Amino acid sequence: MQAFNNMATSNLSTLFFFFGLLLLFANALSMANAKIHSHEFVIQATPVKRLCNTQNSITVNGQFPGPTLEVNNGDSLEIKVINRAQYNITIHWHGVRQMRTAWADGPEFVTQCPIRPGGSYIYRFTIQGQEGTLWWHAHSSWLRATVYGGLIIRPKEGDSYPFPKPKRESLLLLGEWWDANPIDVVNQATRTGAAPNVSDTFTINGQPGDLLKCSSNGTTIVPVDSGETNLIRVVNSGLNQQLFFTIANHKLTVVGADASYLKPFTTSVVMLGPGQTTDVLITTDQPPARYYIAARAYASAQGAPFDNTTTTAILEYKTAPCPAKGASVKPVLPLLPAYNDTPTATAFTTSLRSPRKVEVPTDIDDSLFFTVGLGLQNCPPGTSSQNCQGPNGTRFAASMNNVSFVLPSNFSLLQSHQEGIPGVFTTDFPAAPPVKFDYTGNVSQSLWQPVKATKVYKLKYGANVQLVLQGTSIFTAENHPIHLHGYDFYIIAEGFGNFNPKTDTAKFNLVDPPLRNTASVPVNGWAVIRFVADNPGVWLLHCHLDVHITWGLATAFIVEDGVGMLEKLESAPADLPVC
């Protein structure tokens, strides 16, 4: 019997040994296929003509929009950013998990000090377990108005999409264009305390489209042939506006968002908040012709000014008949929702599901409740009226849990956390609002004034986190696209009014919620997200409307190191910029 047991144990050991070897071989094979992509991004001023006028715009390598990066899941990137512009700059790789590489995340004064004019920095990171569409953009002042581009992540070599292979792929970056220097626009707003001027047009791949003046020649063309199934990757890279997106006479089958696959569903319109991406399949089954691809504002803030232009590109069938000589045939125009069509926006966001059952964190360690919304700051006595041009002589502000976030200026949050530098931030960001009130009702003006501070919230490595994001009606309610750096999260529910823990938990989808990096918190409503704090570092949580982050609608999570090397933040790179 003993001999039998020994033999069984020996066989089992041999089996485990060979299984281990097999795993190592598979890993080595995967690593062998993985590539390192090296790029150089030169930040420079470039003349760009739009809407009949030329602006000296900040660009990457003289391109607007900037270069598209194309990689496979598992690949690494090394991008040397050389700053030849007049402004400080950083680059954020929006949606990249940055596992243990927070130094490469990019938000100014959060994970790094800015790259000064004349300076450079190499961002090094690996794509791990993500496939689909992400993007990159400047994360310093409002430079991302013109400094942005796509990041396409295809499956590992040998793997395929979980949907029929598309005949063609197109990337459409939806942007905003000011007939001015965007830095001047935000600086004027900061000086006066008033809201910044809205953009002059939206763009698709940097072009307003032929409904706008002086814009016909550059209109983006998406070529197709009859009978194809094509993949269109859509990114809202605009600064301050949620957008509706559609293609005339064509159905859109949504298959992914924020570099995570989704259970396919068909729609005629997509709603994207700034920062969000959506992958759609289209079948070219219409009569050969030219069809407008169009985007315009979803403006949920009642009474607030917004850019009401419609940007267009053209879906052009190869066999579309040519117009007679001297004639011009306009492409087919699509129907777009009304600017304030919240039901359509809600119908879209609530249709998103993961393709299969997912592991949603259930035993919650940190149950958090953050209010998100606007506020007003009273001006101290003696302040010039020139600096108090907000409503009733105030200055606009924004906050989470009544804390209006102030970025440090002498050290980054990550550096001060890692090196134990005191006086840069405090870890007393409240887990719930300091005062409970009717968040979406008629809020007392005594609650309109947030406190300015650099407060962060600490999480232990591996903590299961639930975060309720509750919109407020202070000054005005609107839809807020809330982005968490360094993480994807499950959006398990959303709704209108005040979140009610007694009744709204019944709405939680713990089976197949969508995995995203930016959540659209409904106007006068709430969203609930869950994630596991498995990535050590300092991670910014903020509204992706740049006007709101400028006013302080942000905080940060500090996720502590875990046990062992694989749960610890990597050391700071030698070329990390200094403040």
From TrEMBL:
One of its GO terms (biological process) is lignin catabolic process. GO terms for molecular function: hydroquinone:oxygen oxidoreductase activity; metal ion binding. Gene3D superfamilies: Cupredoxins - blue copper proteins. Its EC number is 1.10.3.2. GO terms for cellular component: apoplast. It comes from the Eukaryota. Residues 43-157, 171-319, 428-561 form the Plastocyanin-like domain. PANTHER family: LACCASE-5, MULTI-COPPER OXIDASE. Belongs to the multicopper oxidase family. This is Laccase. It comes from Cinchona calisaya. The lineage of its organism: Eukaryota, Viridiplantae, Streptophyta, Embryophyta, Tracheophyta.
